[in-house]
Structure formats: structure tokens, C-alpha cells
Amino acid sequence: MGGREKVELSRMEPKMHFSHFRLNTFKLRLDHNPTCEKKRMKKTSSKKKARDPSPTEMSVEPWASPQDQAAAEHARSKNSPPAQEQEQPDKLCLESFWSEVETIRQGCGEADLDPTRRDSRQSEEGEQEEQWLADAGLSTLISEDSEDVDKAVLLSTLTRTQAEAVQRRLDSYTLSRRKKNKLPPRDVRDIFSSPIAQALLPESQNSKDLPQKSMASVAKMPFSVSPEHQRAAPKEEFLITDIAYCEQAVIFIKQANFPLNNIPYRKEDGTLPRVICPKCRLGVTRIQDLSHADMKKVRQLALIDMTALCDLLELEVKRHKTGKRKIAESTLFGVPLSTLLETDQKIRPNTSIPLFLHTLLSFLEKKGVDSEGILRVPGSQSRIKLLQQNLEANFYRSRFNWDEVSPNDAAALLKKFIRELPDPLLTAEYLNTFSAVRDITELRQKLHMLNLLILLLPEPNRSTLKALLEFLSKVVSREKKNRMNLWAVATIMAPNLFLHKAVPSRLTDGAEKGQAEKAADVMRLLIRYQDLLWTVPNFLMSQVRRLNENSNRRYQFKNLLRKIQPDSREKPEKNSEPRRTIKIQVGDLVNGTMEFQLNINCRTSDLLAQFYRQFLRSPENGKGKMRRNGSVGYPDCALYEVGGNIGEHCLDTETHLLDLYNSNPGGEWVIKTKPNGGRGQ
């Protein structure tokens, strides 16, 4: 850590005042000698430390892309630039950024990029809050014909900070209604204070009542506020998903370890740490693992947590609505994603992204990822125009010859397809929120916000974005051949995602260097940590389960009886190991049941291994299919949790089944074949 430094604490008042409580934050000011600081900067920048694996790596789940990390490490060890160059963004990257901005301006026209002539509009006073309550599944709070029970069920799963965010939106909505001389809705405190609501509410979900072990684990995590930490990011970052993200922000603020000053950004890929998440005994839940009904509830709860997090971080985010636009008379470019998918699913029912995009990305992966300067080197504008016309006329007729397309022209078509979508790929509602992530200081808060935003995207947009990021990650992994590192790819692609003619943007305002770096910083977080961002946090899964439980009146009635009198049923002994009957629905191959003994160590992978041995690979009833090469192929099966406090949940292979049984004893377990997981899932 070097020499001693004076730490001065000065008390500050927060800018935002909350309805129920006020937070006092402390700002850390470090007194140091500038000359000594420069010497330390030179020493730390000149040293190259090897990235030793974590001693606890076996007990945590890695999330960073290993190929990406290896490529970055290899590039830094081979061609390590001087320390002075590493402190500033690459000039070529900045030129490419503003070249992309200029290309978008020319393609859209200056009038389309004028914020005063947008096709989108900000919601009127009160309309934005009303729409927010509807999107969060809380529209019943402002309806006069709904019962207190329904309102209490919706609110009973929220934490204290989440409930306060809802209260602020209700207060704002009430104020706007009063201005229009309309009757205000009932106050949320009246709903909570009703006798029936008090009876139906589970044990307090306030932040102070959260599990102490989890809270302690969050509280012990250090934040780098010293200049040394600001210049050299930590090698590893731990991400806790058991506690609501907004509640974690409250803890950080109260600890006075939430840096409010701007940390300098660096273009070196190695500054992004390896983010690891402690393993949960219920396994990892990915977005595609849940049913549509459960994902709808996840989105509602994610919106509430994201709004509460924005309030705490003092991010002013205004949602926009896209007005009616004239859809281009074409079959590929300028067509809404939903329209493309509706057409393509008639050809390929299970596709989740447009077939044209799938074909274009496959072509680039085969012939473009090794091309030097891919995505940065512009294609020929005349050829691109002819290619677009040819694709519009012949793609669905299978008459287009991809052999005649150069990789640079194909990359230009990819960027053109993304930016010419009628609505932004990140949606008009959340595009500004994605852009606001660049103003967040701490990496953990950035990842929290991006994780919630990904969950909020409509399914076509989310799948398309994932397919794009998977391709960009492959480009970065071939950096040695194509000379495109993570920072270069992010800098070039950022304008194509964050600039759109339908939504006002501050991307090009202010100092060029700072805006380009901040926009690219968000883009590279999406590329590097995409595997983490496409998962459902554990706290949201717990809230969905509680919401499903509380929505069942019979379940609530049983809980009330348990509080009144003790359960008279015979409980199994502590040492007894239950058995579960698993249903098998593997298409036309196997239908029936199997018995499985549960113990504290058995996992989903153990159950599936027993299923394969007993039903598919046994000599008596082998169900494999002979391949052309003579090998035997078996269906790819998964274990699903169905019913109880969940709709349908495809289980992770590392899920501990006894913990799952205790978490959802009323659910059934079913073995089924996995759906064909294509690109972007």
C-alpha cells in the first residue's frame, strides 16, 4: 500500500430525500503528495504481475469468458505497450468511434438525429408513473375495484427499499392526479396497515431482517477507494446475488465505502477483473430455464429493484415511448424484430433470432473473425448497397451467394442491420438507462444494473443481443490474428447500439474522449460478462417463489393455521433420507417413472446419470440412435421442476436435490428432452 496517508471523513447530505428515512453518507478524501503519486504510478504501471488462480476457485462459479481472458493475457504478455500509452485510450479506437457516429449521422440524416424532432416522446406528467406501475404488475394499487388481499399479495414479496421505490411512484402519481382534479389512489401504507394484509404478509422482508450471514458477506467485501486501487483494478471481484441489489447498495452507502468521485477509465483489457459468483446449492438459473409465466414475474420484480437502485445511485432516467413510424417496405432491413421472427418461425419454428442475422453471423464466424481489422475496416458503400438490394430480393428464395461477400462488407451489413431496426435493440424504454450505466462508479453496481436491464428486455431483443455479443466475444478471442481487442470492438460497436434516431441520446455531448470511453466501457461489460448477465439472480428467484406461494389462497390459509396451532403431522426423522418419484417424458422413447433416493450430496447430474444407465443405455432397453459414424447418440435430457411455488424450471446440473426438495416440496420432478438451444438463447 506504500506510505501512510491521512484519511479525512467529511459528512455529506444526500441529494435525494426518501419518504421514510434519510441516509448519511461519508466521502473519503485521501491526502497525498503529487510527486510521490507520480512515482507510485510509474512503478505500478511498469510491473506485470502473473494472474495466479484463486485458492478458492473450486468453490466458486467463474463467469468471465475463459477464451477471452486467455487471449487478453497472451496479448499483454507478448506485446505489452508502454505504461504511458496504457493510461490513455487508443487513438485509433477513438477515431473509429467517431467514424461510426458520423456514418450513423449520414445514414439517418441530421434531422433524424435532432433531439427536437424525434419520433419518441417522454410520457406526460403522471403517465410515466402509471405505466411504470403497470409494467411492475402493480396497477391494482391505483384501481378502485381491486381487493386489499390482491394488493397485499403483490407487495408482500418486496424488500424495504423496493417498497419505498413503489411508494415514491405512488406519491408522484397521486400528486399528478390531484393537479388534474381527479381522486387520488389509496396510499400503500393504508394497504399494509389493513388487518387482512397484516395477516397475509410473511415475516418482514425488510433489509434489516435479511439473513445475517449473507449481509455480513456483502458488508465484508472491500471497495477500492485508494489511488492504487483506482489505477489497478483487482484481479477478482465477488458478486453476491442472494441479496436484492438495491439492498446491497444501501449497505454500501451506509458503510461510507461508496466512492462518489470519478474513477479514471483505462483501455487495457486486463483492467476488467475476473468476476466470480459463490455457488448456490439450488444451482444457476439462466433466463431460458424459466417458463414464460415465471419470466413475466421476474421482469416485474426486476423493474422494481432496478428503479430502487437508480434512486439510490441518483440516476435520472427518463423512459421514452416510440411513436408510430413508417415501416420500410423491405423484407430484412428496417423491419421490426417481432415481424422478422413471425415470418422466420414459419420456416424454422424454434428459431429465437431472425434467420438473416443467424446466417450473417455464421458467415462472419467462418470467414471474418480472423480478418485483420474486422468491424473497424469499412466496407465499400457501393457494394454494400448492392448487397442489401440483392439480399432483400433473394435471401428467402435461397438464391443469394455468400461466397461473393467480403468479410468487411458482411461486418458493415451487420452494423447496418442493427442500427436500422425501427426500434432500438435495447428498446426505447431502456436505452437511456443502459447509457446511464456509464455514470456508475463501482463495477458491481454496473453489473447489477446491466443484469436487471437484460431481464427487462423483450425476448426477441434479448435473444438477438445475446447472439450479437456471442459473436463479438469470438472476435475478441481471435485478437492475435485480427488485431481487435475488447476495447477496440466495444468502441466501434457502442454507437450502433446506443445511438438511434428514435430516442434522444447524450452519447455525443461533452468531451469526445470521455464520452467515447464511457460508452465503450458499457459495451465491453456486456461483451465480457454476458454469461453472468443472462442469469436470474437468486434473490429474484426467491421472490418469484414467494409470490407464487402468496398468490395461492389455500397456501396462505395453511400458513395462517400453522401460526395459530402447531403442525400435528408426523415429521420425518432428521437422519432419514426421503425418496422422490420422478416422471419421465422423453418423447416417444421413454414414458414412465423412476425412484431416486435423496441425500445431502446428490445433485441433478447424479439423477440424470442414473436415468441414462437405467433407461437409455442398458442392454435390455437401450434407446440410442445409430449415427452415420457408427456411434450411438442419446437424447439430451434435463430435469424440470414443475408446480408448487414455480411454474416450470429447468434445473442446473449442479442443483442439490435435497435443498430443492426442502425449498419446493409441492413441486413435481420431470425428465424431458431439452429444447433445441440455438444461437442467442
List the helices and strands and how they pair.
Blueprint: E1 6-12, E2 25-31, H1 34-46, E3 60-62, H2 66-78, H3 83-86, H4 91-108, H5 110-113, E4 120-122, H6 127-135, H7 148-155, H8 160-179, H9 188-193, H10 195-200, H11 212-219, H12 227-231, E5 236-238, H13 245-254, E6 274-278, H14 292-313, E7 320-322, H15 337-347, H16 355-367, H17 381-394, H18 407-419, H19 431-436, H20 443-456, H21 459-477, H22 479-482, H23 486-498, H24 512-528, H25 530-533, H26 538-551, H27 553-564, E8 579-586, E9 590-597, H28 604-616, E10 625-626, E11 632-633, E12 637-643, E13 646-650, H29 657-663, E14 668-673
Parallel strand pairs: 5-6, 8-14
Antiparallel strand pairs: 1-2, 3-6, 4-7, 8-9, 10-11, 12-13, 12-14
Helix pairs in contact: 2-21, 4-23, 6-8, 8-14, 13-14, 14-20, 14-26, 16-18, 16-21, 17-18, 23-24
What's a quick, concise take on this entry?
The chain has 681 residues and is of the alpha+beta class.
Q: How many individual helices?
A: 29
Summing up helix and strand content along with how strands pair, one would put the structural category as alpha+beta
Regarding quaternary structure, how should these chains be classified?
single chain
Spatial order of strands in the largest sheet: 9-8-14-12-13
Give the N-to-C terminal Cα separation: 44 Å
Q: What's the rounded overall pLDDT mean? A: 75
Residues in β-strands, percent = 5-15%
> What percent of residues adopt helix (DSSP H or I)?
40-55%
Taking the sheet with the most strands, its summary is: 5 strands, mixed
| Radius of gyration from the alpha-carbon trace, in angstroms | 27 Å
Apparent shape: globular
Uncertain parts: 1-89, 110-122, 194-209, 223-233, 260-270, 565-572
Number of strands: 14
